[in-house]
Structures are given as C-alpha cells and as structure tokens.
C-alpha cells in the first residue's frame, strides 16, 4: 500500500509538471462523450422517439458504443435495417400485450427505460452464449439481432423461427426478473426443486432437465432463473407448445414438479399483478405466430 501511494504521488506530480494551464488541449468536441458522438437523427431515430420514447419514456441505442458492453467480448454492431423490424416486433409481442392485460401505467412503471442493441451473440468462456441481460430493471442488452428475420424480410423462412422465439424468450425472461425483483415469488417455489440446482446446468440437456422438473436446462442454474424460465417458456410457446413439451416427459416426478411451478406462476401473476396469465399467454403466442407464419 505504501509503495502504491508513492507511485500515485509521483504520477500526479508528473501530470502537473507536464500539463500547464495555457496548454492547448485541442478540440475536445471530437472526443466521444464530449460532443464527438453526435449524429443527425434519421428515420430510425424518429421511429424510436415516436413509438417508444414519447409514449413509454424508453430509449434504444443502436449506434455502436463499446463502453456500453463488456470489453473482453468480440461483438459486432446491429445492422441498421434490423432496428425498426426488431423494435416493432418487440412492441407488438411484448409491450402491447402487457398493456392490454395490465394497463399502460403498469408497463410505464416496470418497463426498462434503456435498450442497447447488439448484432452478434456474446460468447462465454464455458461455451454458452448470452442472448440478453437486464441490469437493475433499467437497462436491457439484446444480442444476436443480425439473425432476426420476420415475415417480409429477406431470408425469412415461414415456420416456428428459432431466432425469433429466442429473442422473445430472452425479453420475457429478463422482464420476469424485473417483476420478481419488485415483488418476490413465494418462498415455497424454492422448495419444489431444492437440492437439484446446479452450476453445471450447461453440461445437461433440456430433456434431462425436464425429467427433474425444470422447463429448460438453464432453469437448473438457480431458483430465480427457474422462475423466469417458466414464465418465458409458457408465454413464448403458448398453451399448445407448452403442453407439447410436457407431453414428452416420462418421469412422473419431474412432470409433477413442473405442474406445481406452472400453478405458482399463474397464481403469482394474478395475485401480485392482477394479470390473467392464460390471456397474456394466448396474446403473446398469437403475436409471435403473426410474425413467423
């Protein structure tokens, strides 16, 4: 600590000696964050303002800024032609349906106010990828947007698009975190699968996880993610898709645990937020179907 303090003093003196009051620092307006990152607003910026910022006080950053992201990851910017289709789909599938079920006041209160958009996936050292993150309920980072294709876009293939479902799975997952961080789910939730959570979830499969009572292998990581994975899968798969998943489970114990969790999710939405989960589920899946079929 003593050596560190000496170093800081010497460094400070060196800076003071080398930088005089009258020195010309150049045009600081060209430095990003000090005026050098401005641009003329275009069609995308107008759309974001009119569709998200004015009605919901939400902003979306699509211009590249590595400072918003992890410095140890190799990431790519989103393609500009993806921005409006992505955000428009998010509004239709997620925002509009919550507004219809819970009201605009609810959504304005709990919706993250800042979206950061990234073109590529964020790869982790264990071989997994991060599709999205939510920070403090205020900011969501969405990855893999350059793979996004809906009906009418070049490269779109009709059907149950994996990339589209993954994006909405991520959004519903992260919003589920925001909800339980404001009002916690019942403590009884943690007892359903106590002892079965594991940090090695990525070494398993969805099939083996479901046999143990988890809707996805990632749900095995901890109770919080178990809870929001249930919310996300039930919403994005819809009633039919969700029941199809459960119909393949042969272990009665695993199936029973999933049914307990399903009941608890539905009750949580009704008792805490006054939301009819079945109606929200139907609306969400119908909106996804309109994009991919």
TrEMBL record:
<dbReference type="InterPro" id="IPR030890">
    <property type="entry name" value="LP_HExxH_w_TonB"/>
</dbReference>
<protein>
    <submittedName>
        <fullName>Zinc-binding metallopeptidase</fullName>
    </submittedName>
</protein>
<dbReference type="Pfam" id="PF15890">
    <property type="entry name" value="Peptidase_Mx1"/>
</dbReference>
